[in-house]
Structure prediction request, 248 residues.
Amino acid sequence: MTMLASLFSPSPLLTTTASTSSSAATSQQPPSAPQSVNVRLPAPRPFATTLAAAAAAGLLLLSPATPLHAEAEFKTYYGTAASAANYGGYGGNASKKDAAEYVYDVPEGWKERLVSKVEKGTNGTDSEFFNPRKRSEREYLTFLSGFRKLAPVGAVLDNLALSDVGLQDQISSADGVTSTERKDEDGQVYYEYEVAGAGAHSLISVTCARNKLYAHFVTAPNPEWGRDEAVLRRLHQSFKTVDFSGQD
Prediction:
């Protein structure tokens, strides 16, 4: 307690001595008497304040900078690709795993855009999700019935663009359009396209199953593409058709 009290008390007066003498008169008169000079030292900062400042400085030095993009978390979307005639309203198919015809990943925090019967019947949009911070950063799926197999890779992209004005604009202004073909573990063929437009970037995956053509799109303006490319590519790669009807 005595030590803590001394830390919070003002500084005591510090007494020093100073001698005054004259070299010329040293031999002629006795030395002058020592004079006391009072010197007050600056009051110390309170101990608690000093400790808090030191702790704050330590946090600034030792804490790592917050990353711009934390590791994203994902959920699986189960899509049924129901026809407009059998569509149960707005966005009511997300949880029907047993009836799902396709799946893809969705980042946690993205919002679902509810698709109307009219839209489903005109351009085949079945599902769509978007980043609420930038609605034009999104993924969606369209489907068309009556396709038993894929047409040549170039013809498929041209036909998709006919019903998607945004995709038409991207292709017309693109610095490059690439296409590849891959097979999954079951031998199903997927066409994959990458369109690097002047203002936006798109990844597209297309396949045929159950007498339907499925097209999965991931698209973002170029600034968001540069920031979130790794996540957007994961969304693109997560799309596949499935058949859960025979499972328990």
